[in-house]
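User: Please predict the structure of the protein below. I'd like the answer in structure-token form so I can feed it into my own downstream comparison script.

Assistant: Understood. Taking the following sequence of 292 residues as input:
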Amino acid sequence: MRKKTNPWPYILVAPALITVALVVFTPVVNAILMSFQNYDLRRPSARGFVGLKNYLEAIADPLFIQALGKTIVWVGVGVGFQFVFGFILAILLNRKFVGRGIVRSISLIPWVTPGVLIGLMWRWIYDGSYGVLNDLLMKLGIIDTMIPFLARQETAFPAVILTIIWQGIPFFALMILAGLQGIPDELYDAADVDGANGFQKLFRITIPSLKNVIFVTTLLRIIWVANSVDVIYNLTEGGPAYATQTLSVYVFNKGNSLNLGYAATMSIFLTLLLSSVAVVYLRNIFRNQEGK
């Protein structure tokens, strides 16, 4: 006899699938369609299909190329230092000391703070008239006059990178700390018996044991930082003179200028760029599942 299919699993999953389709896939399809149109709300009469025109304009757009380069630096430097400092913080938090639970809780504040609030807070810190950073540097005798960090091209981009580093350190610290607690103590005890020093235990036990954790968290953070808009926009809005305009911020600014067709085109480029990272992430997950 033919085995009957139980419909209940499909019925129970259907609401979630419908929600994902409406919230995620429908806007993606709509963005793809708009990227092939002259979709400018300032000139609704000129709206129409233009083929690859938007894509060709984006490739020839110097601001697009500049924003792409800024995005690579933004992600590379930001995520790189987040990992380094997060790794150090995780090792420190893994040690036993008085008040460790309180310190762990406090260290999560940058991560749980909304990006909009972080942007406003660091904008006050960097302020060239009454900012805390200028006041501190003046008292230490490092500078003689106030520096408008967010108003100068040479200091604005390092300033926003420093902000995103501060925000992302707790994420790496939390994930790596969880991985550290899963490493058996017997490995370190055996290394002590063999006379291994701290660096040998770090590079032969700790880091190899955390390989998957480091790989997954780094890929996730790359995607999040590349898509980040709120921190930069609340600090500089992409200025001065496009000095802090990453690709996601450029897309946001173009959308605000009502040129939705061109904004959708650049968002497709960003999606394709991040999809390569997502593919590596998914392949690693499937490989680990097959290994089990």
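That's the full token string. The domain at 63-291 is CATH 1.10.3720.10 (MetI-like fold).
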